[in-house]
């Protein structure tokens, strides 16, 4: 092929590339209910839907072993996949774990990784049912697939948000991103002066958010008990703004979120200010919090209005009004999605 026909991947972006891949394929089995495009694939197995999600973590791209303990990495690799099952309002039941590793790793290192995998299997009640192990020329690559299930009338796609629905988010945002900034800074300090010990006490909360994220499976169980089916749902892996764009696009709606309603921890805000960053940048665009972003119908609000860990951040509007952040002063400003783009 001549260079004139060459399309750079970074021109397409991650989502553009996925769209191009998806375009190539058409459905061959009726059991394939929903293929590429949501947090998990949806397979009709008769009485319920089976959910399948897969995610890859690559050394040097997603984690740095100089500050990422292997047992935490094992936990995180499982949690981020369970989170995608949770984002469909499903319950994860099985995982497979595949590794590509170099001879740089000892058995003890891999065992530590699997201690983390096991802790996550216990925490989320999932079974490790297989995987693959292969050699890698240098770095560590981890691929996890999670399998789950959901009742057909309880599935939550990205596409079901309706005008007037309430936009909800669990937990607090931006912490994992600020935790990463701290870890990267301490790494640089250490590289310049190996006698310096990292100072992490003050940042315990946000560093924990980066190293030990939890899948919000607890919320899925709570919604089930409360008999609430979210009209749409997605997990926050790339940042709130990016996930809001997905909901708006898939549901064909507009969204207003209110700046003064966005949940964040004091530790996140203080650290952002210390790094001379606008805390809103971390809250809106910082990834990897793995909280759930979802919409509920107004009729369900009474059941959750006093929930300590669900925050009501805005409303669904007609598509024509777009996606906006309503500032504390009441001015709507169009919300751009920055998120993570691994190809830029
Ligand atoms: P998430 O952040 O929730 O894990 P992604 O943005 O990674 O979701 O993926 C979005 C959708 O694209 C998912 O349905 C995923 O399975 C699909 N996808 C991503 N990469 C590929 C690929 N290389 N081939 C086919 N499908 C893909
Ligand atoms: Mg997801």
TrEMBL record:
Query: Quick check: keyword Secreted in the entry?
Result: no
**Top EC class, one word:** transferase
A Gene Ontology MF term for this entry?
thiamine-phosphate kinase activity
Identify the residues that bind Mg(2+) 4. 39, 53, 84
Q: Where is ATP annotated to bind?
A: 114, 131-132, 158, 237
Residues noted as binding Mg(2+) 3 in the record, renumbered to the chain: 39, 84, 235
Example GO BP: thiamine diphosphate biosynthetic process
Where is substrate bound in this sequence?
A: 62, 288, 340
Chain residues that bind Mg(2+) 2 = 55, 84
List residues of the PurM-like N-terminal domain.
37-150
Summarize where Mg(2+) 5 binds, as residue positions.
Answer: 238
Per UniProt, which keywords does this protein have? ATP-binding, Kinase, Magnesium, Metal-binding, Nucleotide-binding, Thiamine biosynthesis, Transferase
The PurM-like C-terminal domain, residue ranges? 165-301
- InterPro entries per UniProt: PurM-like_C_dom (IPR010918), PurM-like_C_sf (IPR036676), PurM-like_N (IPR016188), PurM-like_N_sf (IPR036921), ThiL-like (IPR006283)
Name recorded for this polypeptide: Thiamine-monophosphate kinase
Q: Per UniProt, what is the name of the gene that codes for the protein in this document? A: thiL
């Amino acid at each position: 092929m001549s260079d004139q026909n060459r399309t750079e991947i970074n021109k397409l972006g991650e989502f553009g590339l996925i769209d191009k891949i998806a375009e190539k394929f058409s459905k061959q089995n009726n059991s394939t209910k929903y293929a590429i495009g949501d947090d998990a694939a949806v397979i009709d197995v008769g009485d319920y839907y089976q959910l399948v999600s897969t995610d890859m973590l690559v050394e040097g791209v997603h984690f740095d072993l100089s500050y990422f303990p292997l047992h935490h990495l094992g936990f995180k690799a499982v949690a981020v996949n369970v989170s995608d099952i949770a984002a469909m309002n499903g319950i994860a039941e099985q995982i497979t774990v595949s590794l590509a590793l170099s001879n740089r790793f000892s058995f003890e290192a891999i065992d530590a990784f699997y201690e983390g995998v096991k802790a996550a299997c216990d925490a989320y009640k999932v079974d490790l049912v297989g995987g693959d192990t292969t050699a890698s020329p240098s770095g560590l690559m981890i691929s996890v697939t999670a399998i789950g299930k959901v009742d057909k009338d309880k599935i939550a796609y990205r596409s079901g948000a309706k005008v007037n629905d309430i936009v909800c988010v669990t937990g607090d945002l931006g912490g994992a991103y600020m935790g990463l900034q701290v870890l990267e800074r301490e790494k640089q300090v250490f590289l310049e002066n190996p006698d310096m010990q990292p100072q992490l006490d003050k940042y315990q909360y946000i560093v924990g958010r980066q190293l030990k994220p939890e899948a919000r499976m607890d919320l899925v169980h709570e919604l089930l008990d409360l008999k609430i089916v979210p009209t749409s749902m997605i997990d926050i892996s790339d940042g709130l703004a990016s996930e809001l764009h997905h909901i708006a696009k898939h549901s064909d709606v507009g969204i207003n979120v209110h700046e003064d309603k966005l949940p964040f921890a004091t530790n996140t805000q203080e650290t952002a200010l210390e790094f001379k960053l606008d805390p809103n940048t971390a809250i809106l665009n910082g990834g990897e919090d793995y909280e759930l972003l979802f919409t509920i119908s107004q009729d369900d609000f009474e059941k959750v209005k006093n929930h300590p860990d669900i925050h009501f951040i805005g409303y669904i509007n007609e598509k024509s009004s777009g996606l906006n952040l309503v500032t504390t002063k009441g001015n709507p400003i169009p919300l751009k999605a920055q998120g993570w783009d691994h190809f830029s």
